[in-house]
């Protein structure tokens, strides 16, 4: 059935919405795809719902091809399963909680690992039932601190989340690979370029985790990649440590006066002056004091020593110390630890170890992987206005282990030996995650194996944010006139615009639209009377259906104009040939 | 793609779920369509989701045919619009409320009139934009006091709710009719017999309201209908009042002793004895004391006078006094009103009016419409152990108006003159409601009319409970072996069962399934190895796909058995003819 703009529920807006921070939000609201209902919560108008349905159809088809079956869990869920997994508490303020009329606790589910695990536990009991992959396309809820960027980070959003269940690690690998392959097909069909990057595998003991990122300079995530094929997000990048250096013949540490040198920059300048060397920031060891808040609420100070030419990376430090929350130490923290002399902190003093194993302070001390045994450093002497040089790792000071907290830089070697990495930015469009046995263990999902022995099931979790994908597609496909949808997800295949006052043009537009529908095209017909051609063309450009046909002055001669929204190319053809032209594209 | 039971996510259960009160709930759980997640909250398994999707597809198609466009509102909504309409409060305990991390109030929407009204207000401004009909298929939430009967009354459920917007009453009539016609087509396609009954039009000033009921003796709703075509639910039935009787020559009231006659039964027996008449309960006026609790919290006692052969109907009294809540008067209420002598209450005493206008008590008094002027009654004398006879309405006592609170009985005349009514039971499957201008007035939805004058829009609201419909279809289509789906909503078109140990049977079943898929059938293939024919047949009967094909012993001879799940008929045909046989059905 041809959709006629004279009746269709659509009103385009001239003005950008006041709260729109990103292009996709601005254009989707202006072109009549979505409306804001509350912060981070949107109403889907007919155009938006059609695009969303087309993306969902692609995802459903490829989930089916991957052998996954669709289910649908409630959004409103009881507290108990989330209590059992610990997430009722660990989500903190990030979820919506409520009570029913009897005072029972519920939440609006932010993700469904617990429920999927319990469902399979309730129904399946034997290795013969596995492997199993099931998924849903469902609305999820997160109480974001600052919902922003329209659909890119909402509080109510649609996700496809799939889960796989296996009783062997090999089986889990195969299930993971099937989803990973499906994701590649999905993003190819949606016209979304992607990079698969290694991701942090989190706290749940998972073996493998990868993100699908769309590379774009405006992406919110940074990732690294080498020409040789390595790719990882910055959290998952692992540093290539140099070989240890023998201690033989290395000079012994010397404390030297270094007034007013609390920063690496001032320390390097001073060192080159008084030591007559050619030192750079990379020769100094920067000791950064962090305050961890553990899940049980206790606060712990730790120090990380990294080469002075590096910074602590917020995302890497978060992953390195999870599940603790990390922040910079406060002035009060320093007051409580007088042995930490701000600006002059080091692992060593002439009296012995200050930080790390068997230290005077009891403060745990972690090192960047580059600080291998035998490397020699200029660093703080734990005395105000004094530093020490020739301090050798492994000989003069020890640590409580290595942590990956220093920032990654272009030129750093990829851990797989595939050469130096470059930094790039991207938007997350999917995530595949070998969860391992955390949820199955916690919630008691076991099956009998071939030998009649109970074994714990291993799971995978695989997510695509449907509404986020839609926003990203909009973010990547537009110009200053409006949206330009890829044909695979456009709300309509063809937008027929009848212009002028000539009834013949409207009659021809009607006939052409009917022919297009018969040929299998989904047609939007702008048959609004008394609306100027300029307004109609502007609306067509804003709405962004990829193929536009103008039926106007040439109608009397049986001619129409094909207008490619993306290239801007226009071509006059006989109306009788229009269907064939479009079918050939 | 053929769906194979060897991999499909399905586990049928031998036992009925402990909490299942109704057949649909019992069978949908046992056959693997749904699982309980919390009281009144269900998870949809693949089979259930497929049936639900098919029902939704029928509804979508007919909404499209009715010229309605699909939108989708959030489930999580801010308080403000519901505060403006008064429903934030009036829903009482019936909705789920929550707060976000900033303390802002939200609710899980039980229905969306407010949001639809605001959306149209924000986008439309002219009569030229109307009429408009928009709808959504969306999950809704109600915190039922006692969620029960599985999907028939859940706390999370899926509804199709449509809303129409017009600026004239004629336009509203046409929009209403278009939805009503669509409902008829939907229920016909779903194989659901229906009766359209007049319904109470509620508090919102609506002009017209009708329910679609499926007539069934196990229905939870009572409705009345006449052979002449009248149909209404009991709340909407209006009594035909007899003509008034001239007062001339009517005897004057006489008080008489009536010891120990606090009930109608004892009163009638006593009256016939002492008055030497032939009275029945219909000759007595029963005065029932009710306690109303108004929305502002105030409590008011009222009395209703109805013929002694009728009872106060709970549903009718609720509608009659809405928005007040109604309950029977308590002993404390009687203590506070000593003029009300329990068992002997009447509108009149020798001192004057006891109830009604200008009464001594100030208590409002309402009459059944049958108590017209000139009718003569035996009723209480407001003196313990005394009644009065020959008390004439309109002459000896007055009232504050008529109310429809007495029960409806088979044989009562239909208000449209179409003859006596009978009582029947049904299940509500749809509701069409001319809302009028309540929401538009409250939320400021006005448009400019042809004369440039601002006019308030008139709305309609039209609902179908998708998950409820699914349960009703299951409730009506089953036998002692399991479900029997109508073809229009079955999860699969054909269930092919391969039995025996003969590889030839499995090969033939595979080939036949592929042929059926090619011919356009959606096929479920039971290819489970090492499962006995008995278990496979039992599962096929429980799951309820309407057409079953058994591929077993006859496979070697190229023969299969067609099994009609509803009739039980079995027929052996050549496998090569099976597709043609099914296509012909």
TrEMBL record, chains A, B:
InterPro entries: aa-tRNA-synt_IIb, aa-tRNA-synth_II, aa-tRNA-synth_II/BPL/LPL, Anticodon-bd, Anticodon-bd_dom_sf, Pro-tRNA-ligase_IIa, Pro-tRNA-synth_IIa_bac-type, Pro-tRNA-Synthase_IIa_type1. One of its GO terms (cellular component) is cytosol. It comes from the Bacteria. SUPFAM superfamilies: Class II aaRS ABD-related, Class II aaRS and biotin synthetases, YbaK/ProRS associated domain. Its EC number is 6.1.1.15. GO terms for molecular function: aminoacyl-tRNA deacylase activity; ATP binding; proline-tRNA ligase activity. Coiled coil: none annotated. Residues 35-486 form the Aminoacyl-transfer RNA synthetases class-II family profile domain. It is found in: Cytoplasm. Keywords: Aminoacyl-tRNA synthetase, ATP-binding, Cytoplasm, Ligase, Nucleotide-binding, Protein biosynthesis. Belongs to the class-II aminoacyl-tRNA synthetase family. ProS type 1 subfamily. Catalyzes the attachment of proline to tRNA(Pro) in a two-step reaction: proline is first activated by ATP to form Pro-AMP and then transferred to the acceptor end of tRNA(Pro). As ProRS can inadvertently accommodate and process non-cognate amino acids such as alanine and cysteine, to avoid such errors it has two additional distinct editing activities against alanine. One activity is designated as 'pretransfer' editing and involves the tRNA(Pro)-independent hydrolysis of activated Ala-AMP. Homodimer. This is Proline--tRNA ligase. It comes from Microbacterium invictum.
């Amino acid at each position: 059935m041809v959709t006629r703009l004279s009746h269709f529920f659509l009103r385009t807006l001239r003005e950008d919405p006041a709260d729109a921070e990103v292009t996709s939000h601005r254009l989707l609201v202006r072109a009549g795809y979505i409306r804001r209902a509350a912060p981070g919560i949107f109403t889907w108008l007919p155009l938006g719902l059609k695009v969303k349905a087309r993306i969902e159809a692609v995802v459903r088809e490829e989930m089916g091809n991957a052998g996954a079956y669709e289910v649908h869990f409630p959004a409103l869920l009881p507290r108990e399963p989330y209590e059992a997994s610990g997430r009722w508490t660990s989500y903190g303020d990030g979820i919506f909680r409520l009570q029913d009329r009897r005072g029972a606790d519920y939440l609006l589910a932010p993700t469904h690992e617990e429920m999927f695990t319990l469902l399979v536990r309730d129904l399946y009991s034997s290795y013969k039932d596995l492997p199993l992959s099931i998924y849903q396309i469902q609305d999820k809820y997160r109480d974001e601190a600052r919902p922003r960027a329209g659909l890119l980070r909402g509080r109510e959003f649609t996700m496809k989340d799939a889960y796989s269940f296996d009783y062997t690690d090999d089986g889990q690998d195969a299930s993971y690979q099937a989803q990973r392959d499906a994701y590649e097909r999905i993003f190819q069909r949606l016209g979304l370029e992607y990079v698969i990057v290694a991701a942090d595998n989190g706290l749940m003991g998972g073996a493998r985790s990868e993100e699908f990122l769309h590379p774009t300079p405006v992406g919110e995530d940074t990732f690294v990649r080498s020409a040789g094929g390595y790719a990882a997000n910055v959290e998952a990048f692992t540093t290539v440590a140099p070989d240890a250096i023998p201690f033989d013949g290395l000079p012994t540490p010397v404390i030297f006066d270094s007034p007013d040198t609390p920063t690496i920059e001032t320390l390097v300048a001073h060192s080159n002056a008084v030591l007559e060397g050619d030192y750079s920031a990379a020769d100094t060891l920067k000791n950064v004091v962090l305050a961890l808040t553990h899940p049980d609420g206790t606060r712990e100070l730790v120090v990380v020593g990294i080469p002075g030419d590096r910074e602590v990376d917020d995302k890497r430090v978060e992953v390195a110390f999870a599940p603790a929350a990390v922040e910079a130490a406060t002035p009060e923290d320093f007051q409580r630890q007088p042995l930490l002399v701000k600006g002059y902190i080091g692992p060593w003093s002439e009296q012995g170890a200050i930080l790390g194993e068997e230290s005077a302070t009891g403060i745990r001390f972690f090192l960047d992987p580059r600080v291998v045994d035998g490397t020699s450093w200029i660093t703080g002497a734990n005395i105000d206005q004094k530093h020490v040089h020739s301090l050798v790792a492994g000989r003069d000071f020890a640590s409580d282990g290595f942590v990956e907290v220093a920032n990654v830089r272009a030129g750093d070697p990829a851990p797989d030996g595939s050469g130096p990495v470059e930094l790039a930015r991207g938007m997350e469009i999917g995530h595949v995650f070998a969860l391992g046995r955390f949820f199955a263990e916690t919630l008691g999902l076991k099956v009998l194996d071939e030998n009649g022995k109970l074994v714990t099931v291993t799971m995978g979790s695989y997510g695509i944010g449907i509404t986020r994908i839609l926003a990203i597609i909009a973010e990547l496909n537009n110009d200053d006139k409006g949206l330009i949808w890829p044909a695979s997800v456009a709300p309509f295949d063809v937008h027929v615009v009848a212009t002028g006052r000539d009834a013949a043009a409207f009659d021809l537009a009607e006939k052409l639209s009917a022919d297009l529908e018969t040929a299998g095209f989904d047609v939007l017909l702008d048959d609004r009377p008394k609306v100027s051609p300029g307004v109609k063309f502007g609306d067509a450009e804003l709405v962004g259906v990829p193929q536009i046909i103008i039926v106007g002055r040439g109608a009397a001669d049986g001619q129409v104009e094909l207008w490619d929204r993306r290239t801007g190319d226009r071509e006059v053809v006989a109306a009788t040939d229009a269907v064939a032209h479009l079918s050939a594209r």
